[in-house]
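This section describes the prediction task in plain terms. A model, or a person checking by hand, is given the sequence of a single protein chain and must write out its three-dimensional structure as a string of tokens. No templates, partner chains or ligands are provided. The sample shown here is typical of the held-out split.
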Amino acid sequence: MPKAHGPPHLPPVHQADAAISQVNPVSNQLYTVLATTTNVRIISIAAQVTWAAVQPTPLVVLVTIDGQVITHYVNNPVSANPYEAIVRPHLPENDQPMLSGFAETARRAFLYEGRSVKVECYITWGVAQPTPLVCRVKWARW
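The expected answer:
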């Protein structure tokens, strides 16, 4: 009988959500939601922005996995409407969408996984600062 090598495969352990709620975010400033962490499985990412007068665009989430940056965004987000990061295989990694409705989450076990993962978000605004910028990451670690 062959001898097993290494530790037995263990399932990922769910972690507390990584989240931010940034009041009066600065235009184009990156806000870290999940600092660089090892051995991560991203289950879902949701973001939203609420504004008083002037609509920001776009709302962006950057996911860095093992040095590769994947950009999710939505142009002209609706105020206080949550958007989910989704993967569209036919689009390049710098052009991945965020959609409203959360139908995608039910169709997959997880979004991404990697040895080194970081999640950041930002918005771009013109005249008035939106408040707040919210982003939540559900994740696990093995």
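For orientation: The CA atoms of residues 15 and 110 lie 14 Å apart.
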